[in-house]
Amino acid sequence: MNSPCLHNSSDSTDAADWQRQLAHWFQTACRLEVLSPKPGNVNPGHSFADASVDDFLKSAAAAAPDIARAPTQPIGQTILNAVTATRSVVTHNTNLGILLLIAPLAAVPPQQSLADGIASVLAGTTTEDSRNVYAAIRLANPGGLGKAAQQDVDSPPTIPLTDCMQLAADRDLIAAEYSNGFQRVLQQGLNWLLQAAQVSDNAGEQITWLALQLLADAPDSLILRKCGLEIATTAQNLARRTLDQGWPDPSGQPSFLQLDQFLRADGNRRNPGTTADFVAAILFAAFREGFRVS
């Protein structure tokens, strides 16, 4: 992966061609994410008891056609259809967070940049979108879900999807994106991806460095839900120390290994799954905005 650079990847607005592009970008983003050696996540060197690299690759292939249709259908329908397709090839949650992040981005019309178009996409969500997303969440059955005081996922929602997400924004980084216009993906994330090209010319190291930046920036939502604030904050601090010690320089390798071992303890319950979801979304956004990431 060389330095990300702009190219004119979105000139064509032919609907069929655009759908092929969206599907390709989605699958490529998911593939690069799972094949990189990010700490604590499934990767070619580490499977979980119930999840392997192949599961994530099959999930991406299954969900890609529905992501490709995102510009022509409501967000909630895209997410529910993609989760349903995913569950036809795997029996556990592999990509709910990725779909929640990428579906709105994929819905932005091709004539608009993501930064210019995401606000209107989010403003246009409906209560029907909420119902479909709630059904998708129940089908995916992600770990660590508790009960919400308002608009709980086990009750019929009564407000539009963006409003539901705003209620969870203070405790879930993905929900917060619906409230802040996808700032973490489109501003912080893309900037970090550019910086990663100056850190290493190795694709896996660039993506892993991006993951470390995300994990050091804020406690991972999945770790927070499943393991609590203390464990989530410890992971955050270990990621920051790994970066401070210069990883991927060899001087940072001991801290990297300590972080990886910490995240893989307790039966992989400390898996930074939300961080991985953001990595995939940032890569998708980079492709969509015309960065050549190779």
Topology:
Elements: E1 5-6, H1 15-35, H2 53-68, H3 75-87, H4 96-107, H5 114-123, H6 127-140, H7 161-168, H8 173-180, H9 183-199, H10 203-217, H11 221-227, H12 229-244, H13 253-268, H14 273-288, E2 291-292
Helix pairs in contact: 1-2, 1-14, 2-3, 3-4, 3-6, 4-14, 7-8, 9-10, 9-14, 10-12, 10-14, 11-12, 12-13
Task: Write up what this structure looks like.
The chain has 294 residues and is an all-alpha fold. It has 14 helices and 2 strands; from the N terminus they run βααααααααααααααβ. A two-stranded antiparallel ribbon has the order 1-2. Helix 9 (183-199) crosses helix 10 and helix 11 (221-227) runs antiparallel to helix 12 (229-244). The longest helix has 21 residues, at 15-35. It is globular, with a radius of gyration of 18 Å. Residues 1-12 have low confidence and may be disordered.
